Amino acid sequence: MATKGKSGSKMGKDGMEDLEAVNLAADWSDISQGLRKDLGHQLHSQWIKPIQVGDFCKETGTLNLFLPTEFSANWVQDRFADRLSLAWKIAKSDIRNVKIQVHPGRRKLPDISLNGDGYGGGPMAANDRNDSSMIAVAAGTIGEQGFTSSVGLDPSLTFAAFVTGETNILGCNAAQRMAATETPQFSPLYLKAATGQGKTHLMHAIGHSYLAAHPRSRIFYCSAERFMVEFVQALKQNQMIEFKARLRSFDLLLVDDIQFIIGKASAQEELLYTIDALLAEGKRLVFAADRAPQALDGVEPRLLSRLSMGLVADIAPADIELRRKILESKLTKFAPLEVPGDVIEFLARTITRNVRELVGGLNKLIAYAQLTGQTVSLQLAEEQLTDILSANRRRITIDEIQRTVCQFYRIDRSEMSSKRRARAVVRPRQVAMYLSKVLTPRSYPEIGRKFGGRDHSTVIHAVRLIEDLRQRDADMDGDVRSLLRQLES
C-alpha cells in the first residue's frame, strides 16, 4: 500500500477496499445504535447485533449483510429488511439494495446427529463472539475420526487472553475452577454480566481448558436460541428420545444467553430435566446471561432454582483500571506501532459501556491510521471515533450525583446544602463532593457552590478524605464503587 502525505494520501486497490470496509463499519455502528433505541435491548441483541457487514458492489448498488444461520437470516429478512434497507440508503446514498443472507464462508450449522454415532463432519468454522446462534460440540471420540479438541470454540478466547481486574476476578476464578481437573465445589456455574463484559469469553475458555485437562470428554456449547431451534427440530421429526439421550451424554454443558429461553415452556422443561440428569451424574454445567437468575422473567420456578443452586458469579462493568489493562494488553499485537499514553487514557476514560466497544474503538483507530498513513494521536481518536464516543459520553450532573447519593444513604436531599455536622449527614455529603470531582469537569469552587456555598478548601478536604478512606475502609470503597456503577450505567 502506497501512501502520500497525511491528508491526500493515494492508496492502492487493497487500501481503498480496506478504507471502504472501515467506513461501512462506522456507518453500521450508527445504524445499529439507532435500531437498538427503536427495537429495545433484547430484540437488538438477539437479531441485529449478530449481523456482519459484507461487501458492497458499486455497479449494482448492492450491500451484503451476513448472519450466522439460515434461521436468523430468514427471521431478519421477514421482519427487519425494509427498516435495514431504508437506514442504509440514508447513511450511504449509493446503496440501492440490501441483501440479507447466511455468510458464504460459514459452514451450515450441523443439526444434532440423532441417528449417528457422533456429531460428524469435522470441525466447524470458528465462531465469533457476536454470534449468538452458534452451536459447538467437542467430543473425545467421534466414530473413527479420533479426538477433536476445539470444535466451534474460538481459539483466541482462552484464560491466558482474559485480562482480570477487581470487577471480573470472581467470574474468572470460578470459571477456572469449573474447568480444573478436580471436581468443582459448585455446579452449575452461572455467569451474570452485561453485554460485552467477557462472559462469552470465559465460556469458551472453560471449554478449551476442560478439553486440555480431559481430552476424552464431550462438550456441548450453544446459545439458548440454538438450543430451542434444535429442540423444535427434534420435536417435529419425532426424535425427542434420541435428542434427550444425546444431550445428556455430555460431560460439560455450556449454554450462553440463557435469558432468551424465557417463555418457552416445553424447552424450559427439557432443559430442567437435562440439568437434573447431568447433575445426578456429577457432570458440569455453565450458564451465562445478562441478568441474575431472579431477574429472568417467565422462567418456571423449578428451573429458576436449578440455575441458582450453584454459584452465581457477577461480572461487573470494567472499571478504569481494568479498561487500561485491557487496552495495554491489546497493543502487543500492533507492535511496533506506537500508541501514545494519552490516547490510551482517553479511550479508557471515555469508552465505558463495555469491553467489546473499547477494544473495537482501539482496533478502528489503529486500522484507520495504518490505512491512511497517519500517526495515532488524541486528535485522530476524537475525529474518527465520534460514533463510539458519542454513544458512551453521558454527562453526569452534580444534581444527579446528589440525588443518587441521598437515595443510597437514605437521607433528605436538603442535607447536601445544610450546615448539619452529624456524621450520618457529613459522610454522604463528602462522598457526593468526591464523586462530583471524579465524574464532572467542575472545579472545586463550582462544586462548593452546589453544596450550600461551601469554600473550595472544604471540597478539597472531602475529596482527599474519601480517597484515603477508600484505601483503608473496604465498606467505604464498596459504597463508592456501587455509586459509580449506578451513575455510569
UniProtKB/TrEMBL annotation:
Binding residues for ATP, per the UniProt record?
G196, G198, K199, T200
Q: Name one GO molecular function term.
A: DNA replication origin binding
What's the main place this protein lives?
cytoplasm
Query: Any idea which UniProt keywords this protein has?
Result: ATP-binding, Cytoplasm, DNA replication, DNA-binding, Lipid-binding, Nucleotide-binding
Span list, region Domain IV, binds dsDNA:
370-489
Region spans: Domain II: 112-151
Q: Where is the AAA+ ATPase domain?
A: 185-317
Q: Is Lipoprotein among this UniProt entry's keywords? A: no
InterPro entries for this protein: AAA+_ATPase, Chromosome_initiator_DnaA, Chromosome_initiator_DnaA-like, Chromosome_initiator_DnaA_CS, DnaA_C, DnaA_dom, DnaA_N_dom, DnaA_N_sf
Compartments where located: Cytoplasm
Matching entries from HAMAP family are given as: DnaA_bact
Function according to Swiss-Prot or TrEMBL:
Plays an essential role in the initiation and regulation of chromosomal replication. ATP-DnaA binds to the origin of replication (oriC) to initiate formation of the DNA replication initiation complex once per cell cycle. Binds the DnaA box (a 9 base pair repeat at the origin) and separates the double-stranded (ds)DNA. Forms a right-handed helical filament on oriC DNA; dsDNA binds to the exterior of the filament while single-stranded (ss)DNA is stabiized in the filament's interior.
> What family name appears in the similarity comment?
Belongs to the DnaA family.
NCBIfam families registered for this protein in UniProt: DnaA
- Name this protein carries in UniProt: Chromosomal replication initiator protein DnaA
What gene makes this protein? dnaA
